[in-house]
Design a protein that fits this description.
The protein is α/β, with parallel strands linked by helices and 203 residues long. It has a single domain, classed as Rossmann fold, CATH 3.40.50. A seven-stranded parallel beta sheet has the order 1-3-2-4-5-6-7, with helices on both faces. Strand 2, helix 1 and strand 3 form a beta-alpha-beta unit.
Length: 203
């Protein structure tokens, strides 16, 4: 199996990629990202199930106490490195929040061919009012340029209630909704539907 995961703490890796090689930009959850922590299970699952696909993982600042502006700055820098290269953006937890907010507030980026959001928070709901992450009014209209948007959430997610998924389903009716039963917030067993969805739009 040909597969590479690259931490974007070092630059210059993109020059080694073929222009048509599919690239996944993965934004992790907050907190520790060691073995068996944070987004580790999901990254390993992607690694095992997507042959010939490169994953780029930006080294986000202050994982223990993440704030939107520093993460946004790193995401902007990463996207500048890609130029017009076609990207699949996958976000887990706070990484999903940053990806969704940032892309909904930017001019259309034709390089984004798919957005895959896992355990995402619908900020602004009762007890989830955090201004720095809240979406702009009409944020859904600014995402219409992305041809494929998917949401994944487990019913037993003890960190972000599954009710957040259904708020996204209403706000973004064109998005594909994937609900699972017993995967919690970390998805220890991965998300088979995520692999299927990525493969369905790879070509």
């Amino acid at each position: 199996m040909s597969y590479v995961t690259t931490k974007l703490s070092a630059r210059g890796t993109l020059s080694r990629l073929a222009p048509t090689q599919p690239v996944i930009l993965f934004l992790t959850s907050a907190g520790p990202q060691g073995s068996g922590e944070g987004s580790d299970f999901l990254i390993k699952f992607l690694r095992q199930n997507l042959a010939g696909t490169r994953i780029m993982i930006p080294a986000m600042p202050d994982l223990e106490a993440p704030h939107y502006k520093p993460w946004k700055k790193e995401l902007e820098r990463t996207l500048r490195d890609y130029g017009d290269r076609k990207l699949f953006v996958v976000g887990h937890s706070i990484g999903a929040s940053v990806a969704l907010k940032y892309l909904s507030e930017k001019p259309p980026m034709k390089s984004i061919v798919g957005l895959f959001l896992i355990g995402a928070v619908f900020w602004g709901l009762k007890n989830w009012e955090v201004n720095e992450y809240s979406f702009e009014h009409g944020f859904h209209r600014h995402l219409q340029y992305i041809p494929h948007i998917f949401f994944y959430h487990s019913k037993d997610d003890a960190v972000v209630p599954v009710s957040h998924l259904w708020h996204f389903a209403v706000a973004l009716p064109e998005a594909k909704i994937r609900q699972s039963d017993h995967e919690g917030h970390l998805y220890v067993n991965g998300i088979p539907a995520l692999i299927d969805d990525i493969n369905s739009i790879k070509e």
